[in-house]
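Consider a concrete sample entry:
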Amino acid sequence: MEAGLVSIITPTYNCAEFIGETIDSVQSQTYISWEMIIVDDCSTDNTKEIVEKYSKNDKRIKYYCMISQSGAAKARTRAMQLAQGEYIAFLDSDDLWISDKLEKQLTFMKQHDVAFTCTAYEQIDEEGKLLNRIVKTVPKVNYNRVLLDCPIGNSTVMYSVKKMGKFEVPNIRKRNDDALWLQMLKKEEYIYGMRNVLMRYRIRQNSISSNKLKLIKYHWILYRDIEHLSILRSIFHIAYWCVIKILRIK
């Protein structure tokens, strides 16, 4: 494990339209001790060719392809297995980092001696235009808070491998990031939130996560099959989620 190295975990599938810009945002980081591990879940577009153009000129960028299409959870787990860094950070293949994201987050972690962190972020559309909406963090979040309403942006998370080890991402098609945070919060009591806006989250119209009704079944799988909550408690959490995510006036 290389001291100070940040391993950036990026699963991808058919993201040729966006992944170059995502890599650009990593290469523009003011903190330069990183490796970017891109695990391709058997894309059928030219994702591979785009990533390999970057990796030929920057050895910190490492491309791997799954043997067969297995889903984002398994691709993310594979990337974590390959990681060599003292820290792991997560970045989806269509999101963007602000240039001092790694530097500020690492400084925060060291100054406050915390192992598990996230940051605030802002939303952009498919063309990369700001939507003038910032998603704030909570100062510290525990397991029960994530169950109730996860306030964590996937592409903002960084944690200390030295203190927490590595994890296997629960194999669920969607909400596998929430499932991972819940696993991690069984080992580390809190994830600490930074107020700084250090990531840009891309809203894509055709993404399954943009259809909130379809996500209900994944919440049920998360609560019942992965976290083994009671039926009543699972129903409560889904009802609560529906109220704040579907019925709430934006």
User: Anything to note?
Assistant: The chain is about 40% helix and 25% strand. Residues 211-250 form one domain. The mean pLDDT is 90. The first helix runs from residue 16 to 27.
